[in-house]
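Chapter summary example.
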Amino acid sequence: MRIRATVAAVTGALALASLAVPAAQASDKPAASALSTFAAKAGADEVVGDTKITKVVVNGGKDIVLGTTATKTVSLSVTATDPSGIEDVFAILWHGTDLESPDGVDGGVVPNEDTATCTVSATDPAVSTCKLTFTFDPAMDLYKNELAGTWKVAVGALAKDEDGVVKDAAATTKVKRNARLVTFNASPEPVKKGKPITVTGKLERANWATGKYAGYTSQSVQLQFRKKGTSTYKTVKTVKSSSTGALKTTVTASTDGYWRYNFVGTSTTGTAVSTSDFVDVK
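The structure predicted for these 282 residues follows.
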């Protein structure tokens, strides 16, 4: 598992870092003896003392969508409370059914920071909101397409009196394969009123297993039109992508305006909008 580059020297913060290490592996880590303090008191989904995790937000509540090469850094915000105040939080983004044996590379994605940045509430010193960031690398973290979908967020919060709480799945987030609409064209241009317009394009999505994009087959894609002089697109019809991801349909020319394809996404794939193409109707 990838771990923090450095760990705070105080025993409490070291103990919190143990949340990134499954119990079976703890004895293999140099800081195992120091880490045992908190781990011995609290197992998964257990609380020691008055510490509570009240809110977890990943990426501002938005899906995490990744292509084949570019890394993406996302934020995590954890609000926790304890009468003594919050010392630190730690978290792991992971995929699978069991935190002890997640199915992602290295067990999950861990924070970029050694310690969280915590801000104490202006109205209640017992409450702190702590922030961390995580960087996804498709080539490293997403080696198979089955990793698309719901990821869980394991969170631990450590209080200043060394009480704390651990939750294997304090929240969830969606990690999706990027989609894109390419080779879009509406023709002929110009066209006589009442004559057909042919609109083509191709829907593709990231294949994490190969590191390339491939046609996304049998998907419903909206053909949309925006009349010249207006600002809103309206769906004209729904088109099904072919076995190669190709899109093709015809519509009747009626007025000047802009055409585009719009894909609303799925539970494992992000949204996509094509470029627009203006057609002059004579």
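To summarize the output: The first helix runs from residue 11 to 17.
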